[in-house]
Amino acid sequence: MVQKAKILLVDDRPENLLALEAILSALDQTLVRASSGEEALKALLTDDFAVILLDVQMPGMDGFETAAHIKRRERTRDIPIIFLTAINHGPHHTFRGYAAGAVDYISKPFDPWVLRAKVSVFVELYMKNCQLREQASLLRLQLEGSEKDSGESKESVGLLAELSARLAAVEEQAEALTKQLNDESTDAAAVATAAHLERKLTGLRRALDALDPGTGSASSVSSQN
Fold this sequence. Notes:
Domain Response regulatory: 6-123
Organism: Streptomyces werraensis
Number of strands: 5
Coiled coil: 160-187
Strand content: 5-15%
Low-confidence stretches: 213-225
Protein name: Response regulator
InterPro entries: Bact_response_regulator, CheY-like_superfamily, Sig_transdc_resp-reg_receiver
Oligomer: single chain
Number of helices: 8
Strand order of the largest sheet: 2-1-3-4-5
């Protein structure tokens, strides 16, 4: 079972964090507070997050500098960042946010429904990626087991069928999500992330299809990995 996704909320004002928690509580995910850029970077050292809501105007390390640190780290560079700001300095200010690696830039006061919908898209994409990693891990374990057993038994054939069925379920969900994003003309970053997920699924499907008990290709696939 996939655990709840973690959403990082970064703002130096407690009342703003409280408001974000009230808006996002309906998503039933784990909300993690950070009152500064430094505190956010510490949280990112140990936990995985589906999305980061990052206030731009903060004393000390502001949102732009915090985002730059996040994007420089291998572990965190792909986490979507939604900038939140109470000040709108025009197109140049917005461009700076996107240049810092944000997938969206929202001015306060924002529509709670819109913010919740945007965050839910990235949470769903994160969940699909978690499912994909679990399936890939299970596949690797089964490949290692088949190498030790030498030869393909009925049990291994049944295992491949089960893996194929599980992968098919994830593929169906990913396809539905991609269609939903395209139909709703959601953020380009979300659409691109969904397409990337589908490409990963295609690669996993090819590897699974290559595991034909009659051809001995399981060992071949394993050696390539």
